[in-house]
Amino acid sequence: MSLEAIEYVKAAEERARQIETDGEKKIQEINQSIQEKIKENDQNMQQELYDYEASQQAIYRDRLAKEKQAVDQELSIEIEAMLKSVENKQNSVVDHIVKEVSTHYGNS
Question: Coiled-coil ranges per the record (predicted)?
Fold first, then answer.
């Protein structure tokens, strides 16, 4: 082989090594870029999940507050009706006692 051919082969081998090195660097850069994108997407997904959970909890709290208010209102109405009934029964008992006393003792 001539000296020129040997130099050409050496240069070609060097270029091949450089291409291989550059290729490995590029692969590492791509892998790193992929990992960063995955990490970014994961963070975005976590934030969206947190926001969704927070909004669902707010909706649930509002619904629960409305339900509690409705139940409290119903209970209040029922308690008022019961108190009115008790008052009416007490008045009836008092009236009955007065009537019995009047009947038993007459108009003294």
Answer: 9-47
What pLDDT does residue 102 have? 84
| Alpha-helix residue ranges (DSSP H) falling in the chain | 3-105
Asked if residue 101 belongs to a domain, the reply is: no
Give 45: exposed, middle or buried? Use CB within 10 Å, 0-12, 13-18, 19+: exposed
How many other C-beta atoms lie within 10 A of the C-beta of residue 57?
10
In a domain, 33, yes or no: yes
**What count of other Cβ atoms lies within 10 Å of the Cβ of residue 106?**
7
Domain count for the chain, please give it: 1
Domain extent at residue 18: 1-78
Q: What is the pLDDT of residues 39-80, one digit of tens each?
A: 999 999 999 999 999 999 999 999 999 999 999 999 999 999
CA atoms within 13 A on the CB side of 100: 6
7 vs 16, 17, 58, CA distance in Å? 14, 15, 75
What DSSP state is assigned to residue 13? H
